Amino acid sequence: MSSDKKSFYITTTLPYVNADPHIGFALELVQSDAIARYQRLMGKDVFFSTGTDEYGQKIFEAAKKAGKEIHAYVDHYSAEFKKLEEALGISNDTFIRTTSEHHKKAAQEMWKRCNKSGDIYKKTYTGQYCVGCESFKTEKDLNEQKQCVLHSNLKIATLEEENYFFRFNKYKDKLLEYLSNPGVILPDWRREEAITFVQNGLEDFSISREKKRLSWGVPVPDDEQQVMYVWFDALTNYISTLGWPDDKEEKFKNFWENGETIQTAGKDQIRFQSLMWQAMLMSAGVKNTDKVVYHGFITSGDQKMSKSLGNVISPLDLVKEYGTDAVRYFLLREISSFEDSPFTLERFKEAYNAGLANGLGNLVSRILTLSEKYLEKCPEIPDGLTPQEFKDYLDKFEINKAVDFIWTRIQILDKKIQVTEPFKVVKVDLKKGKELITETVLELYAITRMLNSIMPETNEKLKKLIRENKKPEKPLFPRKD
């Protein structure tokens, strides 16, 4: 594969398939999609990946609890996550499942390369284990009640078994060198967290489980008694999805080796994405990720919204009630790009009515009603340039500020109509009135252009209405009482 365009690769994390998808992962999907769409508009050759993480103890136990055969269980929930693509208007280029044969072979190749570097060894280990995180915990990872700070509803287990370990501490200096580049993590204060974590000392981490205790995993090469620790296997998806290691279509070469690589993840993933995964890449002799962008949590009642806590909201239900672009609008504007943000159905409805029904929807109706009545045809649409301020926000992944910028333009245009009153002027001075209406149509089209990566359905619908010089037959966003 070869292209004169600059290559841009973006990937989400892979959610566990142990329950239905919730709004927290929908946030990561929609944020990543907005960036992928924007980069395509900027002329980049974009590859956007997402998928599902299907191995591990949590999934094994969830299937057992549900009384279902494990393969059927993961097939069902992977299909549920795949529904988000259409529901949320996601423009991904691939959907990877970690149970695919290619991914399993890639994970085994990653193991072999790390082993060849002398970074894998075997030992007996006793430790405190959180099933929710699928990882061993040190004392600093636990609260005063000796519970995992991320899964306080789950009991910490004490496990002793013989596992393979990765020489994490060997990469302390290399990781600090990697993290010294301000661009490798956004926001920057997360980079400082990662640096502090490394400076406090790295403990070698377990990368396998005994098969007799957990059979559901990728087999460890040359050891039938062990399967890979789910994180070691799953992290490899970021390159296996590009065809690594065979790279028959040269996607890995084009997008990972020669392109700009972006991973998106929740703020609790720093240790895994920017430290463990980067050390694995160093060990395997593969280029490190250029940038990992960390978003905050969607909270409910001051707690992280998560499947394990049982306080989730279904994005599929929201889309069914409000529509795809309404959900995208809320997630991209009302949820902070980097900080925690609360979600309630009341807050969602308020934002929908204020920003969409009374805001954009009302503005479109006013302008296109006047245009259809007084203009013979759509004004000539000039070639548009995306405002630099809007691009600057998206280049820095400050998506909510970019959407705020659009809505500021909407408010300015609405105020202009109130001040100039084209609906009155056109009745006493037809020429002047038409000029004012034409200006509002062109400004509406400029706003519509910016909606391309934020609300793609609305973008297409509005461009068609404006070019056909027609008012909407029904409200774009009916008010919800």
Describe the structure concisely.
By secondary structure, this protein is an alpha/beta fold. It has helices at residues 23-41, 57-66, 70-88, 101-116, 172-179, 188-199, 230-235, 237-240, 251-257, 270-284, 315-322, 324-334, 345-374, 388-395, 399-420, 422-428, 430-450, 456-468, and strands at 7-11, 45-52, 94-97, 120-130, 135-137, 157-166, 185-186, 205-206, 208-210, 219-220, 223-228, 260-266, 291-295, 298-300, 303-304, 341-342.
CATH fold-level label of the largest domain: Rossmann fold
Count of β-strands: 16
Helicity level:
40-55%
In the CATH scheme, the class of the largest domain would be: Alpha Beta
* Corresponding CATH superfamily of the largest domain: HUPs
Rounded Rg: 25 Å
Question: How does the overall form come out from the CA principal axes?
Answer: elongated
Give unreliable regions as ranges: none
